[in-house]
Design a protein that fits this description.
Blueprint: H1 2-34, H2 41-48, H3 53-59, H4 62-87, H5 92-103, H6 111-122, H7 131-134, H8 139-155, H9 163-183, H10 190-204
Helix pairs in contact: 1-2, 1-3, 1-4, 1-6, 3-4, 4-5, 5-8, 8-9, 9-10
Amino acid sequence: MAEGSAAPRGSREAAKERHRMVLIEATADAILEHGLANLSVSRILERAGLSRGMINLHFQSKNKLLLEVVRHFSDEYVAHWQRAMDAAGPRPEDRLRAIVAADFDTAVLNRRMMAVWLAFRSEAQSSPDYMPFIDSRDARLQAAFIEICAELCTTGPYPDVDPRLAALAFMALLEGLWNDFHLYSERFSRDEAQAVVMHMARAFFPRHFTGD
C-alpha cells in the first residue's frame, strides 16, 4: 500500500516543480520583453500557459514569485562558475582562468540574464530582499577570488600584491564588462573581454599568466 501511494505523491511533486519552473521562466521572459515595472500577472500567465491561481498556489503572491525568480537566476550563475572552477583542477591560475571564461559564457551572459539582473538591481533599494541575489560583492564569488589570489601570491611569490584588493579588482572588472555587454551587446566581443581580464591577471601575477 505504501508503494502504491508513493508514485502518485511523487508525480504530484514532479508536476508541482514543473509548474514552478514554468512560472519562473515565463516571468523572466516577460521581464525581458516588458521590464519589471510593466510586469503583470496576465503577462506572466500568457507565457506560462497556466491558470491565474497557479501563482498563488505555488508562490502565494506575485512578490514571492519575483523573489524566487531572482534567487533562481543567482543560484544558476553561482553553480555555473563553481562547476567551471571545480573542473579546472587544483592550480590557482587554472581556477582563475575557468571563472573568467565561465563569466563570459553565453549560458550566463545573455540578454535575458542581463534583463533580469538589471531589473532587480533597479529595485534593490526599495526591495532589500533582492539584495543578496544581485550584490556586486557576492560573498561566494569574492571568497573564491580571494582564495585564488592568496594562493597565487604565495606561490609567486608576489609580496606587493594584496590578495583581497586583487580579488575585488577582478570582480569590479567583470561587472564592468557585463555592463558593457548590456550597452553594446551587438558589438561586444567575448574573446576581447576575456583578454582584458587576463591582461590584468598578468599585471598582478606575471609568472603565472605569461602566455595568456
